[in-house]
Amino acid sequence: FFSKLSTTIIPFVKISLSNRGSLGKRQNYSHSYKYIPEQYLRSRTDSWQSSLNFTHTLANNFFYEVKASYFNQGYYSGIDKDTSEYLTSTEEQYFENIGNGHEFYSLSDHPQLLDSRTATMDLKTDAVWQLGSLNEIKVGVSYKKHWLKLYDIYDPKRNFPYIDNYNTEPFEGAAYVQDKIELAYLVINLGLRFDYINSNIVFRDDPLDPNSMVEVKTRSQFSPRIGIAHPISDRTKLHFSYGHFFQNPDFQYLFENNLYDLNVREPLFGQPNLDAQRTISYEVGLSHQFSDNIAMNLTAYYRDITGLIGTRYYAPFVEGRYTGYTLYVNEDYANIKGFEITVDVRPNKYFSGGLTYTYSVAKGSASSETEQYPGTDESTQLYYLDFDRPHVFNASGTYTIPKDEGPEVFGSTIFDDMDFSLIFKASSGAPYTPSGRDIGFVDKNSLREPSLYNFDLMIGKEIEFTENLRLRLFAEILNLTDHRNILYVYGDTGDPDYTTVGGYSTEYMQDPSNYGPPRSVRIGFTFRFN
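User: That's the sequence. What structure does it adopt?
Assistant: Structure tokens below.
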């Protein structure tokens, strides 16, 4: 059991203003905010968790395990007073009796209050039965119950403030059975999983019709899975897997704007009847051990993902309906394919390291749930998703000098107990869509930003004072070469520092956040007690 509570107070900033009067006399004004604790924006988080595990062995070849857990977390952001006492978003409260005649104090309220509480109870039981020398059977069931509370209000003194408020208790269930068959030159894993979700709520079938209340439909799926491993030799293994997977949507997409507030621009409603995201995955791979310290893995994969959450716009003035709105729906699609090569150098006395190269292509109809909101355009073509990076390469190496070894300086091995690590990362740039006047029709994400790379150097030195006390000094040089990685480019020029759109100043266009962090050096130490 543990608990945690943190509080953040965000004060307003003092602003000094100067103005030259009509007679040329300089007049100074000071605009500051008196410290009134209940008026400051506060954010608080708290969470606690408890768990219980029980394992019982009934026989040498059979045991079962029961796990129970409960997790509770809350978040608050507001100014700790009733919304009836809020000032409007355009109102300020002045304190003219405070100050020396040239200063005045004013106060305004943060326009949003958010209070949420989430609790989850999770019960799970698993059993393992070794049936003879060939079969290992696993079965399990799980049940998960959620308690969700949200109160979110924006500008409470407005005539029609936006309020997102719900209190619901969805639940999930799952069961599986798996048989691991171990033959002389073949290992087969056969499995079947059942997933179930119930949003446990009554909602409007038509968001605009209060009389269209219906009960949510349950969602479920049987997911077959198979895995095969074939040891070609004592150092080489071939494996293959195929499976169906079921992923429940985040609850925010089920219950957003549960009060069906239409007094907002471009209203967007959650959909409790959302289906789960469903994935079919194929994978084939080869593993080979070159020596006792060096091993390689090669894996090729393909994933077909349906039922991704997107948005659909329902235009006004259709079939007697005079209000347009947007609804979350399961209509987006994506597929990801590629291969990955990994080489691991296991640690020996002096050296350890490894490298990974991945080639992948991620295409789909949308890169995020709200990509097409607000708007009426529905994607009819697959394009490179925002996070697609075809080439990704990572390499790392660590050289360690053991105790009492290394070059001697004045008869002393001052470099012993030191380690030097070099990490290299490189990848293709992210895709972007060209834009600009008179550019005509272009494919979405048809161009790509420049590639990225980064070197990090880390050096450490341990000093032993006693058997139970050790000091470690370290230095980290991040982005060793001070390379300017481009993270964002303007669509009309493909340049991170210049755009022809908007008439912005040079200072505005040369935004430092368009680049990755420059070289930085961190130096520190740690103590270790045995």
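Helices lie at 252-255, 506-509.
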